Amino acid sequence: MICSYCGTEGLEDICSFCGANLNIKRPKLKEFVVLEDVEKPFNELSYFHTYDLLVLLRLVRKERTKAYDLMLTLKKAAKSPQIDEVM
Q1: How many Å apart are CA 84 and CA 79, to the nearest integer?
Q2: Which of 32, 1, 29 is nearest to 15 (CA)?
């Protein structure tokens, strides 16, 4: 058996080089990842492929940036001078 993590050959159950368990099935890529997947517990996220986790992280960071920009806009609006409605 060949280790799918480091490529070491001639192994049975556990890789002698990296210590990976070779009997565990590796996760497959999903068709799509949505932002709601963030709410899943760690046990379910551990079955996600690494690429899917990276895409999910990108989505979360994009949402965090939107929230931060909105907060800055609200802060600026509070400091700007008010224009009288009569004018």
Answers
A1: 15
A2: 1
